[in-house]
UniProtKB/TrEMBL annotation:
All residue ranges annotated as the Amidase domain in the record: 147-556
Signal peptide region: 1-29
One Pfam family per UniProt: Amidase
SUPFAM superfamilies: Amidase signature (AS) enzymes
InterPro entries for this protein: Amidase, Amidase_dom, AS_sf, TAT_signal
Signal is among the record's keywords: yes
Coiled coil: none
Keyword annotations: Signal
Keyword Signal listed: yes
Superkingdom of the source species: Bacteria
Annotated source species: Henriciella pelagia
Name of protein: Amidase
Length: 575
């Protein structure tokens, strides 16, 4: 371990103290003895921490900081597995506020599905929404085993172009499919996910496979013997696990330890991330639906790039037990699919309290289709039109014309840039061993924006500043609650709205859905052109809808209506 002695603690700059013990001018190696903490040691550290003290104050602090360093040394020596959550847990609910949710069993009333014949083309079957697949299975027109074999064959054929799967699990998938078919023959039908094959972001444990977290330092881990909570809940609903989809290393980006996951609509560019493989697989018809996660954009961004739909639920609604923790106070689990209402089917199965997740909340989910939207109040900021694409503008116009009452909406005027510092601090703590043991050098992505650099820099955040970021977060929670008063839903651009960051920190639900297409050239993960001279391609554009806490049912029901009006969800990539 790189930091094991008091000398090394001093040389490391007391990272746990936010840099209040940066390198002194003297070297223990030069002097042949352990470097001593002196007032001069603190002078440069003050620049890192953004503070200034007098000579007398520095003199007084020396012994106190030495004691702090001793405590930090003990803390670093204490084993802290990834699933050891902090004692303080985030709760998106404000005190004194009554939220519109129920504590009963989850309930789902699906839309009526037209009784269509089974297509003869396997691709037509593979790209069908979950609602249609479920109808074919229920009516006995296709078996779960047939569906599973179709998707496994497509993965074999197409994934070499996309690099969207880390581990395919054909034996487990076929065994589960056969079991679901046997239940159908015996007269047992579990519901709309019965026999539907899906992909699981490789942040979650599934018995029979490694969990790599997309990162080289963890790619040779042990095969897991137990399922995560989300896998167990989906199995209870009858879904069939095809395997593990790719994620950007440690839930960031589309670069994993072996490849870059690609956008099916333009494989020259990455799929964005970090739910990279789930988004790419859904868009390419490699599974019925998929599970992803979001800490700060990891459901929204790849869905925007690849053109699927995804739901970021209210924080705490879906258990994270058995999954990797990046940021305990921000991580959220959500479904990804080709159709908005499919997301409701999956949320109904995975939503619910779980004692194994310290942040889990008791909140039921009940969904029914919405044909008349006239009772809704839809928030919109006209300023969002200024930088919108043609596809976004058309989607906004259609949404605003559906009959809901249009209400002006303004994003609260509060600072946003400090908020991600809390994410960086928690993530650096979660993966402290990578930084302190020099294992971060094994990560494939090493640019300035990548985790290794961010984790190192986060060692110099001060504890006082991080606590004050959390206080700002509370103010954002209060402000967003006020902004949503008298508003059922808000519609706007995914990123230009300025809502992606604060709503992640306040825990509000978000639906991202395809709005149309635009002509683009290959882009970097952040959207900048990577090859301005390359021929353009038609790639998807998505928009977002946000709702008050626990109001996913309205979000999805309105989104389903809008999706039908837009008529662009079924367009397929040319693979």
């Amino acid at each position: 371990m790189k930091v094991t002695t008091r000398r090394n603690l001093l040389k490391a700059g007391a990272a746990g103290l936010g840099g209040l013990a940066a390198l002194s001018g003297r070297s223990a190696a030069q002097e042949g003895e352990e470097a001593a903490m002196t007032p001069d040691t603190l002078i440069n550290a003050e620049k890192v921490a953004g503070v200034s003290f007098t000579a007398a104050e520095r003199e007084q602090m020396v012994s106190t900081i030495e004691d702090q360093l001793s405590a930090i040394q003990q803390l670093r020596a204490f084993e802290k597995p990834n699933d050891l959550a902090p004692a303080q847990t985030f709760d998106p609910r404000l005190p004194g506020v009554t939220y519109q949710t129920h504590l009963g069993r989850n309930a789902l009333i699906p839309s009526r599905v037209e009784a269509r014949p089974l297509p003869s083309d396997d691709a037509d079957i593979a790209f069908a929404p979950v609602s249609q697949l479920a109808d074919w299975i229920r009516r006995g027109l296709v078996t779960s085993r047939q569906l599973t074999d179709i998707y496994l064959a497509r993965i074999d054929e197409i994934d070499p172009k996309l690099h969207a799967w880390i581990t395919v699990m054909p034996e487990r998938a076929r065994a589960e499919a056969d079991a679901m078919d046997a239940e159908i023959r015996a007269g047992r039908y579990r519901g709309p996910l019965h026999g539907i094959p899906y992909g699981l972001k490789d942040l979650f444990d599934a018995a029979g496979a490694k969990t790599t977290w997309g990162a080289k330092p963890y790619s040779d881990g042990d095969v897991k013997s137990a399922d995560s909570t989300v896998v167990r809940k989906l199995a209870s609903a009858g879904a069939v696990l095809l395997g593990k989809t790719t994620c950007g290393a440690l839930a960031y980006g589309d670069i994993w330890f072996d490849e870059v996951t690609r956008n099916p609509f333009d494989p020259r560019e990455g799929s964005s991330g970090s739910s990279a493989g789930s988004a790419s697989s859904v868009a390419a018809g490699l599974c019925g639906f998929a599970i992803g996660t979001e800490t700060l954009g990891s459901l929204v961004s790849p869905s925007h790039r690849c053109g699927g739909s995804a739901l970021r639920p209210t924080f705490g609604r879906v258990s994270r037990a058995g999954g990797m923790a990046l940021c305990w106070s921000l991580d959220k689990v959500g479904p990804m699919a080709r159709s908005v209402e499919d997301l409701a089917y999956v949320l109904q199965a995975i939503s619910g309290y779980d004692a194994a997740d310290p942040s889990s909340l008791e909140a039921g989910f009940s969904y029914a289709p919405m044909e008349d939207v006239s009772g809704l109040k839809l928030g919109f900021d006209e300023a969002w039109r200024e930088n919108a694409t043609e596809a976004e503008l058309e989607a906004f116009d259609i949404a605003l014309s559906l009959g809901a009452e249009i209400v002006p909406f303004k994003t609260p005027d509060l600072p946003q840039s400090p908020l991600p510092q809390q994410l960086l601090a928690e993530a650096a703590a979660a993966f402290e061993a990578l930084t302190l043991n020099d294992l971060d050098d094994e990560m494939v992505w090493q640019e300035d924006a990548a985790w290794p650099n961010s984790f190192r820099a986060a060692r110099f955040l001060t504890a006082a500043d991080i606590i004050n970021v959390d206080r700002l977060r509370r103010r954002w929670m209060q402000a967003m609650h006020q902004a949503f008063e008298g508003v059922d839903l808000v519609i706007g651009p995914n990123f230009a709205s300025g809502l992606l960051t604060p709503t992640n920190f306040t825990g509000h639900p978000c639906l991202v859905m395809r709005a149309g297409f635009q002509e683009t050239r290959p882009r970097t993960i952040f959207g900048a052109p990577s090859d301005p001279d390359a021929p353009p391609a038609q790639t998807p554009v998505a928009i977002s809808l946000w709702a008050p806490l626990f109001q996913e049912a309205k979000l999805l029901a309105f989104g389903a209506v809008l999706e039908r009006e837009l008529g662009v969800a079924a367009t397929r990539p040319d693979l």
